[in-house]
Write the structure tokens for this entry.
Amino acid sequence: MTNRQLRIALRNCGSINPERIEEYIAGNGYLSLGKVVTGMEPKQAIQLLIDSGLRGRGGAGFPTGLKWLYAMNSEADQKYVVCNADEGDPGAFMDRSILEGDPHSVLEAMAIAGYCIGADKGYIYIRAEYPLAIRRLKIAISQAKESGLLGENIFSSGFSFDIDLKYGAGAFVCGEETALIHSMEGERGEPSLKPPFPAESGYLGMPTNVNNVETLANIPVIFEKGADWFSKIGTEKSKGTKVFALAGKVNNVGLIEVQMGTTLREVIFDIGGGIREGKKFKAVQTGGPSGGCLTEKHLDTPIDYENLVANGSMMGSGGMIVMDEDDCMVSIARFYLEFSVDESCGKCAPCRIGNKRLHELLDRICQGNGTDADLERLRNLGEVIKDTSLCGLGQSSPNPVLSTLDNFFEEFESHVRDKKCPAGVCRDLLEYFILEDNCVGCTACARACPVGAITGERKELHVVNTAICIKCGACMEKCKFDAVVLI
Amino acid sequence: MKRINTVKELEKVIRNYRDDLVRNTSQDDQEGIALIKVAMATCSIAAGSEKIYQTMSDFVKKRGVHAEISKTGCMGYCYAEPTVEVTLPGREPVVFGNVDENRADEIIESYIKMGDPVPGIIKRDYSTPDQVL
Ligand SMILES: Cc1cc2nc3c(=O)[nH]c(=O)nc-3n(C[C@H](O)[C@H](O)[C@H](O)COP(=O)(O)O)c2cc1C
Ligand code: SF4
Ligand code: FES
């Protein structure tokens, strides 16, 4: 195989019309469901999934078959299947694309899950900001019901399964499965301690199996092609493929799907077409606000769950943001942390207060007021937040900070010791300077400066006195000769 | 659509739909028609694909082009939206990026009507499950 990508979860995405069930069916759609409900015991089907080695694509990478087994083994009159379509990572759009491009594969997989665990009801928890995905899901559900592929007595097997939508309001923490379930119940979208896991006590206190959209999209293919087929793809512990939303400073921004074990270099340089404008690669962020930054030295590491964690990042749901020499890593860490501060539900103190303090430390450093002791504090506080937070949000929110501390310590040192931002991003650390070559001595800048920081004779070079300058930028705006620069 | 009650019935339906698709694009069939797919996910629509879909539909209708046009989800080439895939009878599908009204015209007139190459083709670099043994 010479192609760099392998599309399993995205197999139909962009090639079939998502609003016509006929096109999904033409690609063996719903055949896996038919074969499972008419020819396999739930236990047998779950064993196949365990043997395939499929792990959750929503972040944690838990073995999907095992999760189903736990839900199957929980005794109850009523059980539920939930599809997690909350997708809240900044820059991520894998799940949205699957739902918009191939909704039936998710419906089919949910029905298979229902049969295996003993549930007759499924919900898709989707954010209200995904109107097109919602519309196409509704069309898909009604077409599947009309064809008898969802609803009562599917394939005359006696198995019935129905799917409804539940809408989220867009809080990141509602993607965490316990918070998601609380939100479905109409409670506050706050996580709760596990155990009990949803497989024992989930929606309305009943056993509930929660899976991510992409995880589900793989499942019809696994049942069609078999466990051996799937487990041959990928690495020893991470089977199959992963979809990434490749974004940032690469030439070919897009949605890609590669085999587990593909290297970052292949993704960024071969598929992504390298860095824009011929600039230098600096880092790649994976795992969103829970992940970290990987650098040049990780470019040849095969991508799988274990390797990413070992290098201080994580798979996450699949956001991949590429940075170049113009990006300041301290600011990047601050950006992701700011996201976590905004999205913390506030239930537990380490996350609510700790992240806020961590963010203040980064602010100080970016403003040039940081000290060596602050660098130490960043690390200590980060570790404490990770160890003591209640849910995955707090447990991973310091990762972007800790991983940049590990990989770009010199950049932190420049901010703290030399009060310089090497990438030229942190405004407070930059100074206004007038270029001799461009300055014609028009005096516009000196007249614009509200504090009289600029001096110079008419038709001669002007100079900024940085001790007085308040960095308002008025001079730069007024200069018609691009003579004023920030360095 | 008719209710499907058994796996056998589903298998029959699958064969029928496949035959429909193959008939449309098979080589030896004089009646083979071109298949045009316009990516219509949120990202594509934001880049203007709805207009491209409309334009190409109009072209097909008004100029009597032997083609069928349909919508798909994201093809993955966000950097080149709007994207359009064309499958001529008996040929491999090709994807055109950054399609605007002029390019839509060019694709119809040169590629679909005459089979002539048109610049701006995105090389397909992925395999599908059926290609993995
Ligand atoms: C803060 C936070 C946000 C999460 N957001 C999502 C999300 O948007 N989508 C998702 O599928 N899983 C998300 N998860 C993971 C879910 O809790 C859960 O592990 C996942 O839905 C299980 O499905 P999987 O086993 O198929 O991956 C999030 C977890 C945390 C801690
Ligand atoms: S870790 Fe943060 S998001 Fe999670 S429960 Fe605690 S406060 Fe809420
Ligand atoms: S040239 Fe210096 S302010 Fe105009």
The radius of gyration of chain B is 16 Å. Chain B has a mean pLDDT of 90. The longest helix of chain B spans residues 7-25.
